[in-house]
Amino acid sequence: MSTTETKAETTAPIAAPPAGRLKGKVALVTGATRGIGRAVAHAFAGEGARVAICGRSKEDLLAVAEELRLLGAECCAIKIDLSDHKSAIKLVDGVHRAFGRIDVLVNNASVLGSRKTLMETPAEEWDDVIRTNLDSLFWVTKEALGKMVPQNAGSIINVSSGVGRVGRARWGAYAISKFGLEGMTQVLADELKEYKVRVNSVNPGATRTQMRAAAFPGEDPSALPRPADITNIFVYLASDASAGVNGEQFEARDWMHRTDF
Length: 261
Description:
261 residues, Rossmann fold
């Protein structure tokens, strides 16, 4: 992908979908400064949610927060590196102080790592990928549940991958972290049924993002859907239309053109 294309994926405006399906809800989206996380934050804002976003870059966070406010949404932007449990506590408490509740959590933050065999993968890289993609998922979810369970309501949406459902060579720690995500989704879904907190996973599929470009540098990005094109499933799972849907695996592409929710 060219520099221009990469920049466009990060900064081009995303059209908001029809408003109203998430009115009154508070949604926290991790890794929301670019790609799928940013597109989901836009979609939620367009549907009337109050949106909390987090990321490592203050400049990028402020830019996305301004975009959400231009869509008419209240926004809470928190610069944070989810490198330990304490950072997750800080994040969730900050969102709760800002909005008083958390109805939706989208666990999107992740890193790819290098495309090497497991035998070739340095221990330090393994630690970084697992910490970012799986440990932080646990930390943030654990803290968010402390707010959702007393509400007796909530929706957690875990962003998965095709290689987290069928393993493939040279996807290493990334694939294994997504297998862990799928396992956590199933365990939590079963544990939380009585509290009416639902947990589901979404595989975005091949999408025009910087991570996809890094994984497949020779691929033509124009042949792929934009992040904004795959947000329907996230809106559905965040909305009351999906009440009772729990422990399921979804393919975002299956929902790209659906309007029946």
